[in-house]
Amino acid sequence: MAVIYRSFFSYNITRPYPFKWFTPVVIVGGIIAIVLVSFLNVATTGYELVQASSLNPNATEAARDTWFSNWPRYLIGARASCDASSMQVQSTLYTTKQIFPWRLESIGRVGDSNPLFGSLVYKNNLLQKCNVSIIRIEFETLDRNAGQIAEMPVGGTIGATAKCRVDNGDETSIVLETTYDIVPATETSDSFTGNNQLSIYWGYSLLQIYWRSLMQTFLEENQGEAPFSKGIIRLRQNTTLSGSIEEQLKNPDFLSVASCFFTPLNATGVVVIYNQYCGTHQLSALADSAPAFERPLPGIWRSVEILAKAIFFTVLADFGRNDDAMPNMLAHPDLLAILSSNLTAVNDTLGSAFRWGIHTSVIQKSFDPSRSQSETQQLGVNDSMLATDYLCQVPRLKSAGTLFLSVLVADLVILQAIWKIYTLVANSFLPKDNDKKKQCNACTCSTQDEKGTQDHQSIPPEERKHSSSFCEPPSHESLHRKPSLESLSLS
Ligand SMILES: *[C@@H]1O[C@H](CO)[C@@H](O)[C@H](O)[C@H]1NC(C)=O
Ligand SMILES: *[C@@H]1O[C@H](CO)[C@@H](O)[C@H](O)[C@H]1NC(C)=O
Ligand SMILES: *[C@@H]1O[C@H](CO)[C@@H](O)[C@H](O)[C@H]1NC(C)=O
Ligand SMILES: *[C@@H]1O[C@H](CO)[C@@H](O)[C@H](O)[C@H]1NC(C)=O
Ligand SMILES: *[C@@H]1O[C@H](CO)[C@@H](O)[C@H](O)[C@H]1NC(C)=O
Ligand SMILES: *[C@@H]1O[C@H](CO)[C@@H](O)[C@H](O)[C@H]1NC(C)=O
Ligand SMILES: *[C@@H]1O[C@H](CO)[C@@H](O)[C@H](O)[C@H]1NC(C)=O
User: Fold this and answer.
1) What is the pLDDT of residues 241-271, one digit of tens each?
2) Does 18 have pLDDT greater than 90?
3) CA 20 to 30 Å from 482, out of 10, 143, 161, 405?
């Protein structure tokens, strides 16, 4: 007989499960489990995050472009996320409407002028409650470059300062400024970039025609002994006007002159006169006055009124403002009809010197709400955000090799756990301890017992005791006795 070597490691004695259902459940359940677990593992570990830039982080984060996107968040390993963008003071930016180039002038907390911040943490937040604080209309003659002077004898810029709220976790208030040249000094296009919204196009057209008309009137009227070589008119909303907001918008004095300055030029060169030029804040009074030192160039003020309103509402359209407190005149057919009522007449008086560079698509006819049904429906101003690029992390399926390996590893772990649980459950169906003993006697010990029962009488009582306890952990004694038992039963 061979000597039994006892290794440090051991193995389990296995026995087949005595259930008919065990194998079919393993096969069918196993296939189902492999499929489900694999899907789960592809969702949790099969994707990696890669860098991507996005113009709309909310859409990128909400994108449902993986098949498990609608699963609960806690089951998904890789989800798209975007970082906020940081905008520095004095940087130039556009809104999503891309009308005016805005310079970020100051950033502060709402209701608290201190502290001011150096940058704005921004994540596609809506621009809210935007107000135009000031509108600037500048006249320039000789200060422009020769090309501009050749194109048009008088020119100048329009500008605006606006204030908006941004709810980026903090209530932040930002001040933005723009200066816009209708006939720019460089080759930049004068048309608003990339917009196709009708209300904005109306704003652009009104700016084009009225700015040119204003410059033409300025040149015509500015023929005195010491004509003005420069001028600036600053306007702001008169918030103390009476009546409903619609009535205020129709009022020619909706915007009042905050200040105006003109620099005369006579034979001695520039004459600086430190005087308040505009003796009144009211545009209608300035327009109806006879020419006087404090009421200069009465002819320009009607055009100033419409141009300033056009700037005001184009700026508000840029910031997406159109609500009950401040209806946007470009978005409401009746208000647009009033704002543009004189457009046809103004177009007709515009001389060829001032028509230089007008794009053919610029609207040169008053808006008629009764005739342009389809246009009426297209008018509107919706929300705006500041436009910038965001860095995002977006999920991408791993390469085939890594995907296979990571899903395989995760599968093996989970499937093993499932197998453990399954066998544990199956084990609980096994016959209880007492039954086990009987079964033991019936199966494990069957070779001896089958024959042994007949010889029971021949086994001495103490030997018979050993035979029934054979399935219990074998003691040294029983191990040693085994051969003798076998020889006994075989005899
Ligand atoms: C985009 O999401 C941010 C929060 O992540 C939210 O404050 C902002 O209003 C959202 N912008 C839009 C346009 O819904
Ligand atoms: C704009 O003006 C309205 C009323 O005049 C005010 O309630 C709002 O706070 C102002 N918005 C900003 C950004 O200051
Ligand atoms: C605003 O309008 C009121 C009423 O017409 C007028 O009395 C007041 O002077 C105006 N304020 C400014 C700054 O123009
Ligand atoms: C130029 O303007 C100044 C100041 O108004 C005046 O004194 C001077 O006589 C003017 N010169 C001419 C040539 O008109
Ligand atoms: C309309 O424009 C013409 C030509 O510029 C001008 O003479 C007229 O006064 C304007 N009417 C109004 C109401 O502004
Ligand atoms: C605008 O004026 C120009 C030149 O006077 C003219 O050719 C054009 O037809 C006018 N446009 C409209 C829509 O009346
Ligand atoms: C505003 O309207 C334009 C054109 O209809 C659309 O492309 C844009 O997405 C809209 N913006 C928002 C914030 O709804």
Assistant:
1) 999 999 999 999 999 999 888 888 877 777 7
2) no
3) 10
Per the CB < 8 A criterion, the answer to whether 265 and 229 are in contact is yes
Report the DSSP pairing between strands 102-109 and 171-181. Answer: antiparallel
- Express each pLDDT in 306-321 by its tens digit: 999 999 999 999 999 9
Residues 246 and 100 in one domain: yes
pTM of the model: 0.80
Dist CA 435 CA 400 (whole Å)? 52
Sign of torsion over alpha carbons 142, 144, 147, 148: negative
Report which ligand 2 atom has the smallest distance to the Cα of 239: 5
- Does ligand 6 come within 6 angstroms of the Cβ of 173? no
Q: Ligand 1 centre from 48 Cα, in Å? A: 25
- Residue having the nearest C-alpha atom to atom 1 of ligand 1: 58
If we measure between CA atoms, which residue out of 201, 136, 137, 197 comes closest to residue 162? 136
Are 98 and 195 members of one domain?
yes
Give the end-to-end CA distance of the chain in Å, rounded to a whole number: 19
- 106 and 45 in a common domain: no
Domain assignment present for residue 284? The answer is: yes
300 CA → ligand 6 middle, Å? 21
Q: Which residue has its alpha carbon closest to ligand 7 atom 8?
A: 382
**Cα(219) to centroid(ligand 4), Å:** 20
Are 284 and 320 in a shared domain? yes
Here the tokens at position 187 are 């080759």
Q: Which helix (H) or strand (E) holds 337?
A: helix 333-339
6 assigned to some structural domain:
no
Domain of residue 117, residue span: 85-391
